[in-house]
Design brief:
There is one protein chain. By secondary structure, the chain is mainly α. It has helices at 17-40, 44-86, 91-94, 99-105, 113-121, 128-134. The chain is built from six helices and no strands. Helix 2 packs across helix 4.
Length: 145
């Protein structure tokens, strides 16, 4: 997402053209093709090719999942530091947040954070989507992968 663009809840998602629209669809189609070939001509070679197709897709999706988990941990760290700076003396409140809540609150402007944190801790906002929909003044995140 270009730096100059304004993010909001409807526009915050990022799609990586090669990953989402080329690599994953081709690997998905490859699995279907290999399974059809296995059904049409069952033998060791076609079975092995079908297994490798599924394993390749699983390996790449798992690698992507691991990267996103690391990114979530970094977001938690960044937001913990930010919240401790913005809300001195409320470390015990910050410790109660879940990773999805950290992910949701990261888009909030500094001025919105205290009120959002209070609403989260009161149970009014639980999911990251609830939090993100509530944010009025977005801090753009153009570095998320």
């Amino acid at each position: 997402m270009p730096e100059a663009s304004v993010q909001s809840y409807p526009t915050h998602r990022r799609y990586l053209l090669p990953w989402h629209f080329i690599i994953l669809p081709i690997l998905g189609v490859n699995i279907v093709v290999q399974v059809v070939r296995l059904i049409q001509a069952p033998d060791t070679g076609t079975a092995w090719t079908a297994v490798l197709s599924v394993v390749l897709m699983g390996a790449l999706v798992s690698a992507r999942w691991m990267v996103l988990r690391v990114q979530d941990r970094i977001i938690r760290l960044e937001e913990t530091l930010r919240l401790e700076r913005l809300l001195p003396g409320r470390a015990h409140d910050v410790e109660r947040l879940t990773i999805p809540q950290f992910i949701g609150i990261r888009f909030a402007s500094d001025a919105e954070v205290p009120h959002l944190l209070d609403r989260i801790l009161a149970g009014e906002l639980e999911s990251k989507d609830d939090i993100m929909r509530t944010v009025q003044h977005w801090r753009s995140d153009s570095l998320r992968v």
